[in-house]
Amino acid sequence: MDPVELFHQVAATVPAYGRFLAEHGVDPAKVTTLADFARLPMTTKENYTLRHPLPDLCRGGVIGDLIAVSSGSTGVPSFWPRSAADERVIADRFEEVFGGSFAARERRTLAVVCFALGTWVGGLFTVACCRHLAERGYPITVVAPGTDRREIVRVIPELAPHFDQVVLLGYPPFLKNVIDTGDLPWARWNVKLVTAGEVFSEEWRALVAERAGIADPVRGVASLYGTADAGVLGNETPLSVEIRRFLSDRPRQARELFGESRLPTLVQYDPGVRFFEEHEGTLLFSGDNGVPLVRYHIADEGGVIPYGELLDFVRRHGFEPRAEGPERPFVYVFGRSHFTVSYYGANVYPENIAIGLEQPGVSAWVTGKFVLEAVEDERHDRHLTVTVELMPGEKPTGEIAQAVGESILAQLLRLNSEFAAYVPVPQQTPFIRLRESGDPEYFPPGAKHRYTR
């Protein structure tokens, strides 16, 4: 993608962007080089999309043929028009996963869409992209039970025997819940997983792969990096997964590469359709969508690494990936910058807690969902508090709470050097609150889960 060319197209055809440039004193004719482009004001929800009528955000002031709604994880839900052309571009990312990792061109594939249906962005968009693959000749059949677990475990046993493989698509904790509670012979159906929306650990990948009977986690579990604003921006490849697995046991090398010892999602993207920039540790992207976006700041912490630079880095540290290509740049994503808890000056990340719950001595008791808080008591002392959802049928016990707390603390000390250095030893042990599955206050069924408060 030529970002300068995209800029001129958007400036000429999108009424809201023309006004935005005028407000900032930008003459489009003077933007002729990449250096000029890099000096353009950033757009955000607050300064751009929420300030203009929806038609004015679209080319020619015309809303597209489908509207999706964001999940509203950062506030009020937003509306995002889509078109069939948007779907075809993003279907390329699905094709790379289904064709490259899952060999779906040669296998009859049942795609089970477990994202929320209705106006929300995930479900219907995923259905559409999978059907585009069917139009391209892939022997894919789609069924969309959405987030109704009872329907998921009802339809899969009926349909799966007619296919060579079953691909479940959904948010990581929900797919884990389905696999854990379905009491189904997953290994018999050659299951694969496509996830989106959250960073997960390599311990999570290995754990869920084992429970689903996935023999090769590198080619059997793939994450998409997407946003409601622009659909899927990048996808895991066997190469990116191999590199991430290598780094998962090496916090020092991860910190050297990413600036932090916690592990981000690591995907590859197509620079022909998306242009990424890094700004003060966060990501900007530009792309032609139902709402064309130029230098759009999505508040995701992360960065961009050229293909050759990342391969050189891991080779210097003694790792030679077995998977080849594609020779495209990488983007890494930690998630939204405000999804952390500050405790004694240390940033505590949900990823640190998740790994503690995914350890062998604990994972059988818990679903993987939790809420991280720094709670102030009546004396105004703060305590790191983790509310944890138990597996269906499990009841809270002191034994489970102690094991969970010890596992979380061990991973915090291993992965988060800031926590180990800043937090006084007597205050390091987290306070654990256990809740039964589906607790209405912390883990209401069907709602998009938030890991911090």
TrEMBL record:
GO molecular function, one term: phenylacetate-CoA ligase activity
EC category: ligase
Record's keyword annotation contains Repressor: no
Enzyme Commission number: 6.2.1.30
Xref: InterPro entries: ANL_N_sf
Keywords, sorted A to Z: Ligase
SUPFAM superfamilies: Acetyl-CoA synthetase-like
Keyword Cytoplasm attributed: no
Protein name: Phenylacetate-CoA ligase
